[in-house]
Design goal:
The chain has 4 helices and 22 strands. With 323 residues, the chain is α+β, with helices and mostly antiparallel strands.
Length: 323
């Protein structure tokens, strides 16, 4: 640092002042302004160009999903980047809108979003909707979600495994957090990943992760009272369930068949516990986990809709008709 002693800072500042004094700022701005205009025009186009490029990369990287012997893939939409971060975990509907949840665990990032069913136009979103008290308790994921009576019921996940199993409630209108219900850890030692509400009865169904031999039923009220336990029959257990929905009084569950690209949608009789594979579906990529499922009849003949995160860049919203 001895060289600094040899610098005459007064002289240096004087030379800089003279230099800046000779600059015709008006002329310089006149030259820069057109260039900035071109940059602005480019930036306006860049997001759509970049999104299109990432969609291309996503589709290019994935094997093509198709039909199986029990289900026909009717429609497929891919979403990347921000949209993908909004729908990588949960999916439900209220008849007019899809509601989605997303998470990035290491960043403690969570999100909820709302889309028109017909156009998939995003009409609302909220990042970091989870109450700070829940984050401090260790909840870093919004998992599967289910709509009921203007509310979104969400399975809260904790990658640390330290937080008690929990269901959080959000407004379907504002996507804002409202309250939570902690569930007995003895029933769900590794937490829960899915919830499904029967809109006709107000009963909420959920089960343990990663393996459950029963489904627990709660009544949606001020206390989320436990109603009963349904023991599973037909299948030995419910393994790796990533989402669920009740439709027509039947519980449908999205099952991730680990390391396989053919995943299952299970059907559970909520009166008897009788369970079976209702249909199989092609998810395109073996390494990607199965997504949450929602049920809604569309004009194209599809009924079951699943949001599959491909583990790289994007999320596929796939609609199926059972054969």
């Amino acid at each position: 640092m001895d060289f600094l002693k040899n610098i005459d800072f007064g002289e240096l500042l004087g030379k800089m002042k003279d230099l800046f004094g000779k600059i015709d700022w008006g002329d310089l701005w006149g030259k820069i302004k057109p260039a900035l205009g071109k940059v602005a025009d480019f930036l306006k186009k860049t997001p759509s160009m970049f999104v299109a490029f990432t969609v291309f990369l996503t589709v290019l990287a994935d094997p093509v999903a198709g039909n199986t012997g029990s289900a026909r893939l009717v429609h497929e939409e891919v979403r990347t980047l921000i949209d993908a971060s909004f729908m990588s975990k949960g999916l439900t509907n209220d008849g007019a809108y899809y509601y989605t949840s997303g998470a990035v665990s290491f960043a403690k990032y969570t999100a909820l979003a709302k889309y028109e069913i017909g156009t998939l136009k995003r009409v609302k979103y909220k990042v970091f909707p989870v109450n700070w008290d829940l984050i401090k308790k260790g909840y870093d994921n919004i998992g599967g979600i289910s709509w009921y009576n203007g509310k979104l019921y969400a399975a809260m996940e904790s990658k640390s495994g330290k937080a008690a199993p929990c269901i959080a409630v959000f407004s379907a209108d504002s996507l804002a957090y409202e309250t939570r219900y902690e569930l007995p850890a003895c029933w769900f030692p590794q937490g829960i990943t899915w919830v499904a509400v029967d809109r006709a009865t107000g009963l909420l169904y959920t089960g343990a992760w990663p393996t459950a031999d029963s489904v627990h039923v709660f009544r949606i009220d001020a206390t989320m009272a436990h109603v009963r336990q349904i023991d599973v029959s037909g299948l030995s257990s419910l393994d790796r369930i990533c989402g669920g929905e009740v439709y027509g009084g039947v519980l449908y569950l999205s099952q991730d068949v680990e390391s396989e690209r053919i995943n299952n949608v299970l059907r559970v009789n909520v009166q008897t516990g009788e369970s079976a594979v209702y249909f199989t579906r092609d998810s395109g990529r073996a390494e990607a986990p199965a997504g949450d499922v929602t049920v809604f009849p569309k004009a194209d003949g599809s009924l079951f809709h699943v949001a599959d995160y491909n583990g790289i860049l994007g999320v596929y919203l796939r609609s199926y008709a059972v054969i």
